[in-house]
Amino acid sequence: LETLAPLAYRGYVPAHIMLAEHYATLSPQTDVSQLKCLYHKIHADSGNQSRRCELAEFLSQRGYHSRALECLRMLKSPSPATRLTLARVYSRAGRADDARKEVEESEQNLRKMLKDSPDDHAAWILLSQVIAYQRRPLDAVFTLAEQCRREAKPEIVDELLRCYTVWLSQMPPHVQHVQ
User: Fold this and answer.
1) Nearest-CA neighbor of 57 among 79, 25, 81, 24?
2) pLDDT the model gives residue 173
3) CB–CB of 131/140 below 8 Å?
């Protein structure tokens, strides 16, 4: 199968799918098996930006920041989610100004999208994540709470609870245990 689906280029898509599934089920998982799985997923679904984001996160978390950035820079028009991933990679690489620029661009794009499609629940969740990334967890909570007030969708409620929990965990211990 690996001759039909090499890691270096696209090859035969069904073979990439089979190899991605194979590497995903190996136990124990190693960095090599996870990396091979991610590359095969990218080749199996080359138009999917989230696959490249997964690979970039994986590489960046292991200190390969320049490879992670290479992976994301080849995308022609990054989505807000991809920009958030770029911000995380830049931040890990010690490039705070670039990270800030990407996250601000992501927030602007999401706000524009939500003016046109205010019922896009995934965009509201992503906006709250972008806001929280900017160290504004309470704003993220309020953004989601306002959406829940309009329409309490389970995915919005779940994200609201997650944001609220993160916000509470960042409070000093004496505030968390008020009787």
Assistant:
1) 81
2) 75
3) yes
